[in-house]
Amino acid sequence: QVQLVESGGGLVQPGGSLKLSCVASGFQFADYHMGWYRQAPGKERELVATIDDFSYRTNYADSVKGRFTIWRDNVERAVYLQMASLRPQDTAVYYCHAQYSRAIGGAQYWGQGTQVTVSP
Known about the structure:
Blueprint: E1 3-7, E2 10-12, E3 18-25, E4 32-39, E5 46-51, E6 58-60, E7 68-73, E8 78-83, E9 92-100, E10 108-110, E11 114-118
Parallel strand pairs: 2-11
Antiparallel strand pairs: 1-3, 3-8, 4-5, 4-9, 5-6, 7-8, 9-10, 9-11
């Protein structure tokens, strides 16, 4: 029922760009903070960027500030991540995340992930 479907990953050269998309269904999208996380082999999953449910306040990891941009469309029920100036260190599986914003301990959901590989 609940789905977060990511797309847009792939293989790019250093310095290249990719746009990731996450389309949500099965829940009230506008009531959820959204975010992108990533996990590289042998490493912990880390926050990349988040965007709030209604204020559209954003937060970025220091490693991606100035290079990545997150935005959302509550009508399309989608969140996007534009990635530019990609580095090999950005290689990871990128996951879409939803967090209910109206209560502590509310529902949260994860997408299946999409692979981003930055390599010559």
